[in-house]
Fold:
Amino acid sequence: MRVCPARGAPKRPGSDGGWISMYMRILAFLVALGIAPAALAAQPEAWRIGMQDPANALAEQTNSFHTTVTILSVAIAIFVMVLLAYTMWKFAASRNPNPSTVTHNTMIEVLWTVIPVAILVVITIPSINLLYAFDKTQDAELTIKAIGHQWYWSYEYPDNGNFTFDAYMAGQGGAPLEKGQVRLLSTDNPVVLPVDTRVRVLVTATDVIHSWAVPAFFNKIDGSPGRTNQLLIDRVKKTGTYYGQCSELCGQAHSFMPIEVKIVSKADFAAWVQKQQPRKVGDARPQDTPADLADAQPARPATKE
Structure:
């Protein structure tokens, strides 16, 4: 008896025709080489390997540093593997019936101490410079505040009239997503920031520890109750939508706590700010209960308390 696959089950490679099968094989080969087609900076993409495309200068420097350290680590690993293989071959018992009695070599011992220290220094200097650059928020041109709750974000704009709003995940309660919204990443009220502006983000929380993270900006920092941390979003080069998520386990609906940032022109930002002036916390809608959040994603596995 023939068994039909379940609805939505993945198809076997090649079942859609020769051209599709060939394309998938070529794509898999490119992925293995690390040269798959570039993904958009705004959100995760299928078959993506490595970091999201950096959106500003600091992100570019961090991505370059990450690539350099990765290449260096792979080179060291290959060197050690080759050295071990050569040692096993050179000093095998079958090739050395009379083993050498040498136990020390001053030059080698100096080299295997000095070289690792030099490598660490080379890694440490740019690393410290990047950490300092991300923490240098004194010359920020705009300040906003992100407040984590279970399970949504509130935002304040103290430099623009101190208006506030809440940002919930779009599509909760079975509501259909609007055109252009991304499942699990879009919010009903995105953060809006001007292009080419240094932005200080103050991050805190009201209940448990949350974490505000946007991969394209290479930003991630915890928000803790009773404490305010800060991060810098360097000048984003292009307008567009950038997505992130809470990156700290914060309870039942942790995975339903997205961050959506829209980068717009300075003129559009000024117009948007003007429209937001009357808004207060809670204008978006009342806080959802855990049951509401669970109903919004019925496919999510049940959790045990």
The mean pLDDT is 79. Strands lie at 142-149, 152-157, 163-167, 191-194, 199-205, 210-214, 219-223, 229-233, 240-246, 258-264. Residues 57-94+104-135 form one domain.
